[in-house]
C-alpha cells in the first residue's frame, strides 16, 4: 500500500476468517501499524454484511431491520396519496431489498422469507391495508415480483457480439 500511496483506515478495517468445515476455529488477529485487528464473525463491505459461513444470515437480519424503520417513517406521514407512498416505498425500501440481491441466489426460500415479509408489509402500506390482508393481488397491481423472483430476474440485457443486429421490438 505504501508503494501505491494508499492509506488504510484502521477504524474501518475488519478481519474476516472463513474456515473450512474441518479446520479448527482460531483466534486470529493481525497487527497493522501498532493496532491489533481481531477476527470477527461478520464484516460489512459495500453495504453487504458477509459472515464467516457465507450464509448471509447477518445481511438478511440487517436489511429488514433498516427497511422496517423506513416503513415506520413512511407510515407516520399524515397527508399522502397512494402514488406518493408507492414512490417513497420503491425509492427507499424496494431499492434496499434489491441491492446486491444476486448474492442471495443460492439460498433456500426459508432464508429469504424475512425479505418477503418486508415486501408484503410495503405493499400493504402503499394501499393502507391492515396487517393480515392478502398480498398477492397487491403485488400484482403494483407490478412487483416476489423477492425470490426478483433475485433470479436480471433486468439488464445480455451483451451482443459486435456485428450482430440487436433484436427489435414489434408493436
From TrEMBL:
It comes from Synaphobranchus kaupii. This is Reverse transcriptase. It comes from the Eukaryota.
